[in-house]
Each structure stands twice: as C-alpha cells, then as structure tokens.
C-alpha cells in the first residue's frame, strides 16, 4: 500500500510516522485492492476545544473510497480512533461487495 503522510502546523514525531505506516499498512489486509492511503495530521487552534489533534485518512482502491476524520488529545490517540473507524468501514464495504458479487 502506498501511504502518504502530511501535516499542518506541528511536524509529527518519527514514532508517530512509524506507527502510522504500520497501522494503516495493516488495513490493506482487511480489503484486497486498497492500494493508496493519504493520512493528514493537523492541530486545532481553538483553545476551547480539548481534542486538538486531528487525523484524517482517505483510502482508495478498486473503485472504492473510504474516508474518516477524527480528533483526540494526542496524535497517537487520533490514529487509533481513525484505524478503528476505518476497520469498521472496510468491513461494511467488504460485505457490500461480497453480497453483490462484484469481486474481481
């Protein structure tokens, strides 16, 4: 899977980049054909918002596009929430494709 990681505001740490590559790369096993992932980290500047770190992920492949955007108190928490949300969405996409017999 081709994973592109970008950020706005603060530069993500090497540990966060490595965790992102590892966790997003594992999602390719859930649905064959997902070949591109774009991960974007940003930080909310509003002081009233507690969950400042935002992780936005777009997965594409075989005519399917899965998108999620989550916020948490730190980058690792946001990444974990995004992966959980994407696992659920990919399960729904896979069952929809299997039910309709459009594999290939």
Can you tell me about this structure?
This protein is an alpha+beta fold and 104 residues long. The protein has one domain (2-100): Ribosome hibernation promotion factor-like (Double Stranded RNA Binding Domain). The chain contains two helices and four strands. Strands 1-2-3-4 form a four-stranded mixed sheet, covered by helices on one side. Helix 1 (14-26) runs parallel beside helix 2 (75-100).
What key attributes describe this structure?
104 residues; alpha+beta; Double Stranded RNA Binding Domain; elongated
What's the arrangement of secondary structure elements?
Elements: E1 2-7, H1 14-26, E2 36-43, E3 53-61, E4 64-72, H2 75-100
Parallel strand pairs: 1-2
Antiparallel strand pairs: 2-3, 3-4
Concise account of the structure shown:
It is built from two helices and four strands, in the order βαβββα. It has 104 residues and is of the alpha+beta class. The protein has a four-stranded mixed sheet with strand order 1-2-3-4, with helices on one face.
**Overall structural domain count:** 1
Number of helices: 2
Q: Given the C-alpha coordinates, what overall shape results? A: elongated
Query: Which structural class do you get from the secondary structure elements?
Result: alpha+beta
Q: In the CATH classification, which architecture applies?
A: 2-Layer Sandwich
Separation, N- and C-terminal Cα atoms: 18 Å
């Amino acid at each position: 899977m081709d994973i592109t990681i970008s950020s706005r505001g603060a530069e993500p740490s090497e540990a966060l980049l490595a965790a992102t590559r590892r966790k997003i790369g594992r999602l390719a096993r859930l649905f064959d054909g997902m070949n591109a992932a774009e991960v974007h980290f940003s930080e909310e500047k509003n002081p009233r918002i507690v969950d400042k770190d935002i992780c936005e992920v777009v997965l594409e492949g075989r005519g399917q596009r899965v998108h999620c955007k989550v916020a948490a108190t730190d980058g690792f928490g946001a990444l974990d929430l995004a992966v959980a949300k994407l696992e659920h969405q990919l399960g729904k996409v896979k069952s929809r494709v299997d039910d309709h017999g459009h594999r290939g």
